[in-house]
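EI: anyone free to look at a 151-residue chain?
SC: sure, send it
EI:
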Amino acid sequence: MKFTPQKINLFLLFKMPSAFFTGVRLQSIDDEKAVVRVKHRWINQNPFKSLFWAVQGIASELTTGVLVMKEIAASGKKISMLVTHMNGTFTKKATGSIRFICKDGHKIKAAINKTIATGEGETIVMISEGFNADGISVSKFEYKWSVKLKG
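SC: here you go
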């Protein structure tokens, strides 16, 4: 599969409908960075009229996970991927349009190559941060991904 925003957003509809119906959308992806946007709406709000923390988690995890998926596909090998740890920090009420950005694509290739060479599992810590329309950070998530060659 080619990793374009349109194809990933269609993937969300069929494989992750909760992400799709809460408005999570991949905006851009390259080898180094992924950007996901979600707008605060009635369907994804909490009782305090801001973006529900779990929707922020979905959007932030997508920025990291799609980079891992892209690198696994580029390797041509069967590699499993799993989040083994997650930590989130919330610093401001998330309203309006929130962009989550992960710039840790460079970390993945080395881990994939090492797991292919050794057959041992590797872990990667990736950061995704959410910003409001004014460029102010509203939340920051840290994901520990485990990758391992299947078979």
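EI: The helical segments are 5-15, 17-21, 53-75, 106-118.
SC: 👍
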